[in-house]
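Request: Show me your protein:
***
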Amino acid sequence: AERFKALGEPTRLKLIMALRSGEKNVGQIVEELSATQANVSRHLLYLTDAGILKRRKDGLHVYYSISDPRVFDLCAVVCGSLEQHFDKQAQAFK
């Protein structure tokens, strides 16, 4: 349930997608999402505590990466389901 809750917030989904290409530090993620460092850090902590991300410290920098790449499979299933739902709604309005 905690993992689903973690994935239920748009900013956290954007963070996960930003890390799809590989490990990044907080500054890189902040720049990519055009968000504040405080907001990004809060969401990174939440995703790490939920076991979705892992972190690695190197000197003054903290790097984040996906701890289990199957999270992308889960996102694909949910997005596919939503797409079907919205397609059906669109057909009903035609």
Remarks:
- The two ends are 37 Å apart (CA to CA).
